[in-house]
Amino acid sequence: MSSVIWYLYEFARKSWAEKFANARTDQEIMETPSRFRDFPQVRKEYCIACGACTAACPAPMAIKLVRTSDSAHEEGITYPIINTRGCIRCGFCAEVCPTDPKTLLCGENHLIREKFTILPVDKMFVIDDYLCIRCKKCIKTCSEIAGAISEVDKKPVIDQSKCIGCGECIKNCPVKGAIKGIFIENVEEQKAIINMVVDALEARIEADQDKIMELEPEEIYKIDFPTQELVDEARKIIPNDELIRDSIEKVTDRLKMRIVTWDDEKCTNCRLCVGECPSGAITYDEEKGVQRNPDKCLRCSICYQTCPFGVAGFYVARFLLTETALEDGVIKITVKPSQLPIGVD
Amino acid sequence: MLDSLKDIIRKSSIHACLVSTGGCNGCDIEVVALLSPRYDLEQYGIYFHNNPREADVILIAGAVTEQWREKLQRIYAKAPEPKVVVAIGNCPLSGDVFNQEGSSVYAPVSDFIPVDAEVSGCPPRPSEILAAILAVGPDAIAAKGRLAKGDQKAEASEEAEMNQKAEASQKEGEEKV
């Protein structure tokens, strides 16, 4: 009841009547708030014509670098111009602008300092915190060159805006892989090389499948795989030996290949595995019995753990690239039976 | 009865029609913000009809896509003379981020229909859209002889001036009325 009275009272108030008679939007609402990020402002005098703003701009017509003509006593200056008909006011240009003070002002974005170098280098150097032994040799080396590595929280950290990509830190690092030079260019080519190497290694292991299936538990099967053919093939993709070596090393250092073998002779068509297979790679046929399609196989090892007759075998292969020249390098392959427990739980 | 009363009153309103010709919808949402109580478009005598046959002002938002090319001209033809077109946002002006190499947008809109006022921004602020409509709308309805009171136009342009003050310097150059 009281709420109804309050409700009626509201209508009786003078301020309500005034607002009702003159319903208008507050002027304040119409005004642009100070936090609004408007079109970027250009301060020509600071521009160094690096083109970072045009590269960062997501709209095709928004930003353009122009150059004034040379006069008798002075060279023309280069500066960006903003086309307000194309600009989406994202502020990326102000964010990436490397000059100090910034050439472009946009909202609060020009207060952001970029975290990466804009130097045209194809490698980015990072320190792997897990492998770093904090010997600080890299800090010492870099302090004489660029001073990009400093100690933060007792860990060496590379300041990407100062790094000049010389690679001296890697040469002086005592731990392999603690500092990594990551190729940030040619990503597609790197992918192609990695795929090619993995496929070749897999084919090589499959060729020896008969011998692998006879392995005793704890026994290790070793294959030497020369890299000559891989390197020739990779050079057709991209003729950059450093990048090829880096890509092959990525495979041999990190890859742990799972191998599933299938012994049809042991199969009793009990079909326990058919229902367990998560990808439908194992099927049952009245005439052919239980069939496995290796192309669909996820190598999850569920069939190996399910089968009571040892039809499926599960092995793990690891790789090591010998430290020699790229052409006569050898990838050492070791195949080992898996230690996973067998039997349905 | 109420409808006929509304019709009499709306006779002197600026009837607007929003045509979204294939953008990200951001500008349409800004127009929806105009309809909300916060900005309340109707207090300025603008009525959203979304019917080109009754429109005084056609609002275009979007970078004309393949399917819109002919339809846009048909919609424009349907609007009664004199008609006014306001391009909202950067899409109808330049195609904005959609106008990449190999894309199927046919911006600017002015290639297809004459544009009277442009509001740049991605998206523009609702107050900027409102200012643009009020800058060109009253002339259009005045030309149709629909102004109920003599002072309506003055009032409307006063409002426009008030809103334009905030972004006056930026706006003036863009409107090629």
Outline the structure in words.
The complex is a heterodimer of chains A (345) and B (177). With 345 residues, chain A is of the alpha+beta class. Chain A has three domains: 41-111, Alpha-Beta Plaits, CATH 3.30.70.20; 123-183, Alpha-Beta Plaits (2-Layer Sandwich); 187-337, Alpha-Beta Plaits (2-Layer Sandwich), CATH 3.30.70. In chain A, 31% of the residues lie in helices and 21% in strands. Chain A has a four-stranded antiparallel β-sheet with strand order 9-14-13-10. A two-stranded antiparallel sheet of chain A has the order 1-4. Chain A has a two-stranded antiparallel ribbon with strand order 2-3. The longest helix of chain A has 21 residues, at 187-207. Chain A is extended and about 95 Å long. Chain B has one domain (13-174): Rossmann fold (3-Layer(aba) Sandwich). In chain B, 41% of the residues lie in helices and 13% in strands. In chain B, strands 2-1-3-4-5 form a five-stranded parallel β-sheet. Chain B is globular and about 55 Å long. Chain B starts with a helix and ends with a helix.
Task: Count up the domains of chain B.
Answer: 1
- The H-and-E topology of chain A, N to C, reads as HHHEHEEHEEHEEHEHHEHHEHEEHEE
Total domain units of chain A? 3
Give the count of helical stretches of chain A: 13
Number of helices of chain B: 7
What's the architecture of chain B in CATH terms? 3-Layer(aba) Sandwich
CATH structural class of chain B = Alpha Beta
Structural category of chain B = alpha/beta
Strand order of the largest sheet of chain A: 9-14-13-10
CATH class of the largest domain in chain A: Alpha Beta
* Average of per-residue pLDDT values of chain A: 85
Q: What structural class is derived from the secondary structure elements of chain A?
A: alpha+beta
Roughly how many Å is the radius of gyration of chain A?
33 Å
SS elements, strand count of chain B: 5
Net shape of chain A: extended
Order of helices and strands of chain B: HEHEEHEHEHHH
Largest interface: A-B, 21 and 26 residues
Report the major sheet of chain B.
Answer: 5 strands, parallel
Low-confidence stretches of chain A: none
N/C terminus separation of chain A: 67 Å
